[in-house]
Amino acid sequence: IAGITQAPTSQILAAGRRMTLRCTQDMRHNAMYWYRQDLGLGLRLIHYSNTAGTTGKGEVPDGYSVSRANTDDFPLTLASAVPSQTSVYFCASRNASGGANEQFFGPGTRLTVL
Amino acid sequence: GQNIDQPTEMTATEGAIVQINCTYQTSGFNGLFWYQQHAGEAPTFLSYNVLDGLEEKGRFSSFLSRSKGYSYLLLKELQMKDSASYLCAVTDSNYQLIWGAGTKLIIKP
User: Which 3-state string (H, E, C) describes A63-108?
Assistant: First the structure.
């Protein structure tokens, strides 16, 4: 692995189904983030984690949950998907120990909820 | 509330210069980032400003005025591959990034 990876690349999901989007980084970054990107709205923060074992809510957390059991992995779960969760989801990580360093992004997951 | 404003779309000619503006109102300020995002791809880091002034990096430069809540990204010698969206983002007092909606830059031959 080099950098940050996400799986799946894309997914079509029936409303009401449970779905977990996976995110893994090998840069030993302590902070990780989940965003959704919708046309005309820019990136919106769903959840974040400043370090393994801790998580926090972002701007649009409802309907989503996360966990951070270790440094490398930060899965995002949709407990019961709804059509409004159709979006492109990006995972990002950052070395937060030295100030406001840049975030590195995964390639994204394109999710369609029908 | 927190707000980042940038133009929705701009058009420029190959070989020319273009300036993309960003104004912000946030709770605290710990730096401003510019990212480039090609269609269907992830954002990639371009520049970071935390002090007033101009930061130059090759064909790209970024300027910041904290007193005015204003930044711009300057792209010189435009190439067709510069066609992309350019995202302005500000780090607030909690070190969270507040993102603008992005400026789609269209380069014409």
Answer: CEEECCCCCCECCEEECCCCHHHCEEEEEEEECHHHCCCCCEECCC
